[in-house]
Amino acid sequence: MPGPLIIHAIGSLGDVAPPILLGRELRLRGHQVRVIAGERYAPLVADAGLEHRPLGIDFEELVPVPSWQVWSDGKGLAHTMRDGWRRLRPALETMLSETDAACIGAQAILSSTLAAVGYHIGESHRIPYASLQMQPWEPTREFPHSMAFSGGWSGGWSGGLTNRLGYTLVDQVLWQLTRSAVNRWRTTSLGLDPLPWYGPANRARRQQIPVLCAFSPHVVTPPDDWGSHVHVTGYWFAEGPTDWEPTPGLVDFLGAGPPPVYVGFGSWQPEDEARVHALACSALRGAGVRGVLQGRSLETSDPHRYGTDMFVVGRIPHEWLFPQTAAVVHHGGAGTTGAGLRAGVPNVVCPFQVDQLFWGTRVAALGAGPRPLPVTHLRADVLGSAISTAVRDPGMRAAAAMLGERLRAERGIERACDVIEDCVRHPVIPGQADH
Fold first, then answer.
1. Which of 40, 308, 322, 392 has the highest CB neighbour number within 10 Å of its CB?
2. What is the value of pTM for the model shown?
């Protein structure tokens, strides 16, 4: 009997949930699937009927979320990057060893490009590896790297060489930060040669290791300079009913008036969320709309603490809630943006950092929302104006609805499984014929 397919899922919920759904579909096709993910995601893995191997690292705890004041002062990026790396560095080799142990007897490994762990495991265990990307990581002349995006995309750029060099820069920053620890692990634990200065990303591209992009070609058109090994499959969403049920209070609130506007920033929610909610309530009331606010346990204990026109929820399935809203306000994470666009409602993106400005700019370029509003110096009147536009501009609402129809018609998760099964039948082993 073939060994399990390994899914190495790291990051926050938006990074982990789509690969788990991919594993669920692979299981339904008859494959044995093992998911390596943080302990907090064990219930998600179990609900999908998959085997779970825990990681000792909790990525949501690794990246401390500053206060709203730190973000609005423009110091949030430096704060999170500095403290996140300080916490990750001593735990990196433990994560690598845990992953290696969980891959014994595996048939293939599917892993995030961000970690590049799958490349080393594939080379050591002599099994195929495919890269899972929630945002574009493959070099192109058409647009800058999503993790180093500074705005300006309305469909493409003329600075092709500059764009492409940006991918090399991001690869090198990540590789040089982890190079000593990874090479020590490769030599002492895996029995492999250390990698040179250019790192695993360059080797993987030369070998045309398969890449699965978990976003839609309707949102990011595949550039002409991407090879045939890069597959933009469409978003990975589960079809059919789930066991999750809303509270009666939320159902009553949704039915008691016009569709509300959702405001939530996922794992990027600042620690002083009462201040965030005060800003959000002011913006929502200024736009003349009701609101559903994402909160934590202390906030959700009293859903109407901000008034009868507001309802506070905890983490909630976006695919259930978003279609019942007039618009969604969020941070612009890859998964949340995909869910918002698929719901067919306008998206107001308030990016914090990393790839979020990239997605917010794509939303605006597609006409499915106003231009992104970075949280730095964000004010209630500015957010309220953007919300008002989102719920009342007929062209924007029509564009969002049309895009939602196209995304709901995609079968991204099925296409991704087809690609994976082809990769298993025609394996490309990392490190082979590379020297």
1. 322
2. 0.92
Q: How many domains does the chain have?
A: 2
d(CA 375, CA 340): 19
Strand ranges for 121-178 from DSSP E:
129-133
- Quote the tokens at residue 131: 């890269």
Strand 310-313 with 347-349, pairing: unpaired
337: amino acid identity, one letter: T
CB-based contacts of 60, cutoff 8 Å, min separation 6: 12, 13, 38, 40, 267
Rounded Cα distance between 167 and 196, Å, is 18
Using CA atoms, how far apart are residues 110 and 50, in angstroms rounded to an integer? 15
Residue 75 banded pLDDT, cuts 50, 70, 90 = low
Displacement of CA 390 from its chain's centroid (Å):
23
Spell out a b/e string for 34-51, using b for 16 or more CB atoms within 10 Å of the CB, else e: bbbbbeebeebbeebebb
Q: What is the pLDDT of residues 282-334, one digit of tens each?
A: 999 999 999 999 987 656 678 999 999 999 998 899 999 999 999 999 999 99
CA distance 255 to 252: 5
CATH code for the domain of 256: 3.40.50.2000
Range of the structural domain that residue 163 is part of: 5-235+411-425
Domain identity same for 78 and 213: yes
More confident residue, 325 or 79: 325
Same domain, 56 and 173: yes
Q: Which helix (H) or strand (E) holds 212?
A: strand 211-213
* Encoded amino acid at 100, one letter: D
DSSP-derived letter for residue 190 is I
CB 41 within 8 A of CB 16: yes
Rounded Cα–Cα distance for residues 22 and 41 (Å): 15
